[in-house]
DNA sequence: CTGCATGCAAAACTTTTGCAAAGTG
DNA sequence: CACTTTGCAAAAGTTTTGCATGCAG
């Protein structure tokens, strides 16, 4: 529980509630907890992780189907990133810090985040050159980390 | 069947056979056909696609388990890229043309390839800065293509 | 109250694996 | 021949879905 954002959880949650009610959807404690776990987690969590962590940290049961439906919903309203690090499971993280990309160790599966303004800039240009309306992007660099080679 | 490489299929196949025999593995007609389909395809194929296309184009049955085992093998010997465009299926392409990345339309799922030297360069630096031995990378830009917005 | 959200269990998919049989070098 | 590879079917794992019930606005 030590992730640092430009925004407190309270502010984030308030904005979120406003946002979904504007869209005509209903909030629920399940959504709150999924959001909370994602907000405070330093990891990239799978749906299973999310459900387990909510149980572990808050002793609340959120069905796995609900987690899947919720992350899909979060994805549709564009507040979440999903990434597959190569093991056929989707992992999720909130899109609240500045955009970043990932370095993944192919041996120990450690994930390191990085960001690079120049690459961000280039990506915008590439989208523009191809007449794409840029929505999102993922970049994963695979390699062997320091400890593994 | 109009993909253009720096190498003919015959040359490619010969190199491949040499390569795997050096590694102590055996070739098979199944591997040949999987390679052939991938070599001549303009698309990013799923395992299912590969099996179906071999049946359709050459009327040869290659079990889906064999396709999965083979693409995994190809991945281990580093001659294939796999990518998940967001639909929980892996798609494969040979690593024979110069490296490129992908623009994916979130509406019609069209895939456009691009490459950018500057980004490639930056990626190398990022790996180096983090003491990673760079092996591979994937970058996907998601957006709405020209036809879809 | 209306209708979206949830939970459960079943279903749908994709991918992996065990084992006997076949094929390669 | 020895040993890898294949095919089949079963298993495993992830994600989706139908439906009755619950809950938010």
TrEMBL record, chains A, B:
GO terms for biological process: negative regulation of DNA-templated transcription; regulation of secondary metabolite biosynthetic process. It comes from the Bacteria. Keywords: Cytoplasm, DNA-binding, Iron, Metal-binding, Repressor, Transcription, Transcription regulation, Zinc. The keyword DNA-binding applies. Zn(2+) binds at residues 105, 108, 145, 148. One of its GO terms (molecular function) is zinc ion binding. Binds 1 zinc ion per subunit. Its cofactor is Zn(2+); Mn(2+); Fe(2+). It is found in: Cytoplasm. SUPFAM superfamilies: Winged helix' DNA-binding domain. The keyword Iron applies. Fe cation binds at residues 99, 101, 120, 137. Pfam families: FUR (PF01475). GO terms for cellular component: cytoplasm. InterPro entries: FUR, Fur_C, WH-like_DNA-bd_sf, WH_DNA-bd_sf. Belongs to the Fur family. Homodimer. Acts as a global negative controlling element, employing Fe(2+) as a cofactor to bind the operator of the repressed genes. This is Ferric uptake regulation protein.
């Amino acid at each position: 529980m030590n992730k640092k954002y430009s925004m407190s959880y309270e502010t984030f949650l308030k904005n979120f509630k406003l946002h979904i009610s504007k869209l005509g959807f209903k909030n629920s404690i399940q959504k709150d907890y999924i959001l909370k776990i994602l907000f405070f987690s330093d990891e990239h969590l799978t749906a299973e992780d999310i459900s387990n962590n909510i149980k572990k940290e808050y002793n609340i049961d959120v069905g796995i189907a609900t987690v899947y439906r919720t992350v899909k919903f979060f994805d549709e309203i564009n507040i979440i990133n999903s990434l597959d690090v190569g093991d056929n499971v989707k992992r999720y993280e909130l899109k609240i810090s500045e955009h970043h990309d990932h370095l993944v160790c192919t041996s120990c599966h450690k994930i390191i985040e990085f960001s690079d303004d120049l690459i961000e800039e280039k990506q915008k240009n590439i989208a523009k050159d191809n007449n794409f309306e840029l929505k999102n992007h993922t970049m994963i660099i695979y390699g062997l980390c320091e400890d593994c080679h």
